[in-house]
Design brief:
With 433 residues, this protein is α/β, with parallel strands linked by helices. It has 15 helices and 14 strands. Helices cover 39% and strands 14% of the residues. The two termini are 32 Å apart.
């Protein structure tokens, strides 16, 4: 009698009560095909699916699990916090400690407001920028994803690249009024001339520029120094707010985030993922002058019942403590680079066009002969080859992001033995492409 695939059974069951069977679209394997893996448990660099098959995890909950799944220190901190209740709806000392820690690690953040998700952080930062400047227009960049707030779902990255047909300045999602989208200008990533031209024509109307300082939602794309310098210079000159969306890169690429590597001081920063250690936790913060416009001090309203949740705060504080230890990022960066070098060598051995890139514990690989620098370049890579590679690696017990438009993530738990296993799996997979 054939053994029932529990992932298939769960997926069939899920689709009856959950749209598409998943609670976040990219989990559905729509781009790569096949059945999503339903996770039963995870530990360190691994997770086990509903069939009890072990996989090496290279998404790590899309970034947060930088110290590994179920890290004993983080688990202990969460258990201790949970014993005193899950939520109060009132201030706690832990919130102050987390705010102080963030401000110390990111000097551009003078004050910070806790929220529960990256989307909440970016939508609140945009509202604050508009309230502070008294302007409506915002600029974002092709392929960058900043959560699912209406104003930001225009030529967006992440799952939107898999599911939507983004043409011109049309919304990337149904349910988004064109009237809202007219306040969002979308420019190509890494195009200095384009942003200079827009500021020349409409500089006095632009409230904010929001950017992923290292894009991770159209695969990993790094900005040029000239691009970042132009953005910082133009926003400062025209009185627009520069928002660094570091929900993904914050504490992931370096202890001080991408801004510490790039030497850029944004006006506002959005954080999430790592700062919550895997719990629902995010934040936005920046110059005190801007943050003071928030209620209850100013007229820009933002609120959240579970903001600063004590259990999530405990997970975040312990995670930030661990990653602040000496040598953490040197080790994480070295392991990620070692993995990319191994994958590239395996592809070269089989004469497969393949390029790699990484920053800290974040990486990208591309089925093309060069590292892309824009959304358009990523779309011209060999997506069919990626789909085949994804399933071959899955068969080998390695779980990659189920989309060619997503960056990957390592953790401090990905030691040499784990890397060797991944590289061996890649060698076997490339042979079959």
């Amino acid at each position: 009698m054939a053994k029932v695939d529990q992932n298939e059974a769960l997926f069939e069951r899920a689709q009856k009560t959950i749209p598409g069977g998943v609670n976040s679209p990219v989990r559905a394997f729509r781009q790569v095909g096949g059945t999503p893996r339903f996770v039963a448990k995870a530990k360190g660099p691994y997770f086990w699916d509903a069939n009890d098959k072990r996989y090496i995890d290279l998404i790590m909950s899309w970034g947060p699990m930088i110290v590994g799944h179920a890290n004993p220190e983080v688990v202990a901190a969460v258990q201790k916090a949970a014993e005193t209740s899950f939520s109060y709806g009132a201030p706690t000392e832990g919130e102050i400690e987390l705010a102080e820690r963030i401000c110390a690690l990111m000097p551009s953040v003078e004050q910070v407001r806790m929220v529960s998700s990256g989307t909440e952080a970016t939508m609140s930062a945009l509202r604050l920028a508009r309230g502070y400047t008294g302007r409506d227009l915002i600029i974002k960049f092709e392929g960058c994803y900043h959560g699912h707030a209406d104003s930001l779902l225009v030529k967006a990255g992440s799952g939107l690249l898999t599911f939507a047909d983004s043409t011109q300045n049309a919304p990337s999602s149904g349910g988004v009024p064109q009237d809202l989208v007219k306040h969002t200008l979308v420019l190509p990533y890494n195009d200095v001339a384009a942003i200079e031209e827009v500021f020349k024509k409409q500089g006095d109307q632009i409230a904010a520029v929001i950017i992923e300082p290292i894009a991770g939602n159209m695969n990993l794309i790094q900005p040029s120094k000239a691009f970042l310098a132009a953005i910082r210079s133009l926003t400062a000159k025209h009185g627009a707010v520069l928002i660094y969306d570091e929900v993904m890169t914050g504490f992931r690429v370096a202890l001080g985030g991408a801004q510490s590597l790039q030497g850029i001081t944004p006006d506002l920063t959005c954080l999430g993922k790592v700062m919550g250690g895997g719990m629902p936790m995010a934040a936005f913060g920046g110059k005190k002058e801007i943050m003071s416009k928030l209620a209850p001090l100013g007229n820009v309203y933002q609120a959240g019942t579970l903001s600063g949740n004590p259990v999530a705060v405990a997970a975040g504080l312990k995670t930030l403590e661990i990653i602040s230890r000496e040598g953490f990022y040197e080790c994480l960066t070295g392991q990620t680079e070692k993995l990319m070098t191994g994958l590239k060598a395996a592809a070269d051995k089989n004469n497969i066009p393949f390029a790699v890139d990484s920053v800290g514990g974040m990486f990208g690989f591309y089925f093309t002969d060069h590292v892309p620098t824009s959304f358009e370049a990523v779309t011209k890579s060999n997506i069919d080859a990626f789909k085949k590679f994804f399933h071959l690696m899955l068969d080998e017990g390695v779980y990659l992001a189920p989309s060619a438009y997503e960056a990957g993530f390592t953790s401090i738990a990905h030691d040499n033995a784990v890397l060797d296993e991944i590289i061996t799996a890649a060698e076997n997979s490339f042979k079959k492409l």
